[in-house]
Amino acid sequence: MKSQVFLFLLCLVASALITSCQKNNNQGSADKPGISNQVLSQIKAKGFSTSNVHVVNGGYLVEGDIFLSTKDLSQKGLTNKVRVAKTEQYSTNNLVGGLPRVITVTVSNLGTAFVQGTDLAIQRYNALGLRIQFQRITSGAADITIQGFYQGPSGGYITLGSSGFPTDGGDPYNLVQMNTHPDAYGSNPNVQYVGSVIQHEIGHCIGMRHTDYMDRSYSCGGDPVDEGDGGVGAVYLPGTPSGPDADSWMLACSNGGNRTFNANDIIALNYLYQ
To answer: Which residues form the signal peptide (predicted)?
Structure first.
């Protein structure tokens, strides 16, 4: 998710209180030094936008809050024929397999608000009765680790969190990163706000893409930004609306507060995991 005063990814725009999954410092970041044409071609081949690419430790951030490692880019993506989504709920080609399944989650070296926010997100998913359930564990290896990073605002944006998509082998993406800088959530983070961001990032981990994929300005404001051509990994989910969906938990930018599943989100999740 992303926003314009401070990205809510979630990020957040100052005047509009819009937030986004991840920080987006420059609309023209694809032209930044240090990002080769080869890398941009690999990102495009996987169906992601090259207009807002940022170099981070171990890889690149695209579409505001999606982390692509160097290894991710070197692997050939699936080429299933899919319907190109515009503003409907939709998923990637890769989904979590081995259902029914319990996905374990651990919170590593983060404060109480992040632990409670994780529990809130888990509670919301589990209440849907899906064939994937989540369980927070405090010891042992987990399927998803939630950990912190520290990064201040840049170019009018601040990254709130990031994650990625399931593997070809059917495992959820294994990492959610949450910004511990005070400009992201303040000195006393609101549990519902933090939990909503974690809920969004877990959505990516199990294969959900942004609801306003083809026009980020719908939730983020500013100029219309297409996250990519959708040629790979934008699978339309039947039963979801063909127009903008103002309350979806997978909008590119958050409203800066509490946001959970709306009725169409539940239809999408039921279609994939019921």
So the answer is: 1-16
